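Supplementary notes for students who missed Thursday's class. We covered one full example, reproduced here. Read the sequence, then the structure, then the short commentary at the end.
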Amino acid sequence: MLFCIRELAASLGISVRTLHEAVREVTGISPHRYVRSKRLSRARQKLLTGSTTSVKAAAHADVGNDRT
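Structure (token representation):
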């Protein structure tokens, strides 16, 4: 599931700044880093279990997309 931070903030009815501050307060990292970390963890799991190729894992993790 891909989304951008602006879209997420809008769907929650809060500003991007408020979302950023809330995520950082809870996780200790920015929303961008949090989302990237989750995507990479999911890709790593798929690679470790052999359920996907590195190319597919990268695509599913959206590596190289700055949309978040």
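Commentary. The helical segments are 5-12, 16-27, 31-49, 54-60. The mean pLDDT is 84. If anything here is unclear, bring it to office hours.
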